[in-house]
Amino acid sequence: MLNQPNNNSGIVQGSTNLYGSRHEVSSESGHSGSSRGISDASSVMYATTPYRWLVLTAVFLLNLINAAFWLTYSPISDDVAEHYKVNKNVVNILSLCMSGTYGPVVWTAAPLVRKFGFGHACRGAAFMTAAGGVVRFLGGPSDDGTFWLVIVGQCLSGVARPIISQLLGLVALQWFPAHQRVLATAISALGNPFGIGLAFVLSPSIVKDSDVGKVWLLNLVNMFIGLAMFAFVMAFVRDRPKHDPSEAAISARTGENEIPFTQELSYLKNWQYWLMALAFGLGFGQTNAIAVILNQLLKPFGYSHGQVGIAGVMTILPGVIGAGLVAAVLGKKPLHREALIIIYAIGAVLLQGIMLLACKTPNSPAILYVSAALFGFFAQPCFSVALELAAETVYPASPAVAAAGVVMCAQYVGLFVSAFFGWYINEGSDDSEQRDRVHVTGFVMSGSWLLACILMVFFRKDNLGRYEYEREQRAIKQLEKNEEKRKSRIKKKVNIIESQIVDESDSDNIDDDAVETQGLIQDKDQ
Questions:
Q1: Cystine design at 90: which of 86, 144, 231, 464 (Cβ 3.0–4.6 Å)?
Q2: Which residue has the higher pLDDT, 192 or 279?
Q3: Lowest mean pLDDT: which of 3-7, 51-55, 118-122?
Q4: Alpha carbon separation from 403 to 85, 395, 417, 436, 462 (Å, rounded)
Q5: Residue 347: CA atoms inside 13 Å, Cβ hemisphere, count?
């Protein structure tokens, strides 16, 4: 049933928003419906507020800091192992425990996010991330009995990860118009690679020249960064704007299509959803694994910690450009499936290129950096595209529930690949054997991307439930708008006709009076 316009519907012109500024007016992009009389459904207007960019920034920073905590130790894994007096595989576990907590938490987090709303969920995730940084700072080497605090702090931040993954689609739904949702999801999702980049820059820059005594300083810096992020989220995050920016946002607020959580889970039985989730796990899961074991992948070829960090960063900035271009295209046409097929295919080729070029030519940073930049340009956009496609595929299930299974697949594929191949590379007896094992790892990773591409070929093009719903609602509103215009034109014509009738009646009366007067004059003359 169609929502009738109300104070929150967002179908307003130039209204004042909740925070004292004027709303911009934007139209939903989309194609006109096929019904006769629908001239242009995209002319239905919705109000948006500039404050949405501040809320999006808060989610971006939350995602960024959480990802930075995840990979704090990855680029300096050997130094961290020496500082804490543990095996290198244990250091990998510090990164992997955040992925390991995802599955058990995500299905509990989904109904809690739905119950408490976007604002409370965002603040809760920020608190757990910041608290994890504080607890981790309190930990010390294994021989003084406090190393367990490092593990607990890492897991505490990891519990926030599945909540954050559900906020990415939710902030886009509740704060942004339809034609900006892909862009908003892309920006918030880019917090993950930016966080990885921050870890790859910050960790080697603080722990220089294998000065393992500086690991405590690294933890201190991360703790204060986490607390600053928490303060920003608490200050600026709101649950939703005063006026809804899209038809889907109206539906989410009014509960028009709201369904019980157990019924939402039933929508995940769609095999097309799991096909797409598996493809995403096989593809993007390799990206997670590379981030965790990048130091182990590159060190046998003579690369330093600083060069490892730069290589990690080089996947980020080109990824931002790639995500922006993909979002611009998908904002006009819903080509999510086609975008993922292209991304997975090119990702497979580029990963193989890295193995054949950067890793066949030891200590060649220029080749490594260019290869990493090209890979990042195509790999990073697939995260936001997959989240949007998941929400489309299982609509009317919420974006939070849709994201749960997709990201879980990527987390666990990355967990398995990084745990197994990290161990596999470390077991090499010398650099030569480790280089051979890195090449085997590279072939497996590129093969996974190619398999993801093949799986997406079997994904149907018509899995666009939310897009079709919004197009239908815009078409209905346009029909109502056209009907109101038609009634207004008819009423105007009726008023004109009635006015003409009155004028003609007055004219007839004047003519009768003139005839009567003329007759009296003639009688007087006679």
A1: 86
A2: 279
A3: 3-7
A4: 38, 12, 21, 37, 19
A5: 36
Partnered with residue 24 across adjacent β-strands are: 48
Where does 106-219 show beta strands of DSSP type E?
none
Cα gap 6→378, rounded to integer Å: 43
The reported pLDDT for the residue numbered 28 is 40
Per-residue b or e along 292-308, where b marks 16 or more CB atoms closer than 10 Å to that residue's CB: bbbbbbbbbbebbbbbb
3-state helix, strand, coil in the chain (%, to 5): 75, 0, 20
The DSSP output letter for 6 is -
What are the angstrom distances between the C-alpha of 255 and each of 3, 8, 390, 434? 11, 13, 20, 56
- Integer Rg of the chain from CA: 30
At 130 the pLDDT is: 96
How does pLDDT run across 81-90, given as a tens digit for each residue? 888 888 877 8
Burial-class residue 53 by CB neighbours within 10 Å (0-12, 13-18, 19+): middle
Residue 362, pLDDT > 70, answer: no
Q: Is 380 exposed, middle or buried (0-12, 13-18, 19+ CB in 10 A)?
A: buried
Q: Distance (Å, rounded) from C-alpha 211 to C-alpha 87?
A: 18
Any residues with CB less than 8 A from the CB of 25 and at least 6 apart, and which?
A: 12, 13, 14, 45, 46, 47, 48
> In terms of residues, how long is the chain?
526
Find the angle CA(354)-CA(278)-CA(124) to the nearest 5 degrees: 95
Cα 161 from Cα 456, distance rounded (Å): 26
Q: Which two tokens stand for residue 277?
A: 């989730």
Q: How far is CA 162 from CA 128, 314, 338, 369, 398, in A?
A: 12, 26, 27, 31, 15
CA distance 359 to 443: 12
Categorize the per-residue pLDDT at 499 as very low, low, confident or very high, splitting at 50, 70 and 90.
confident
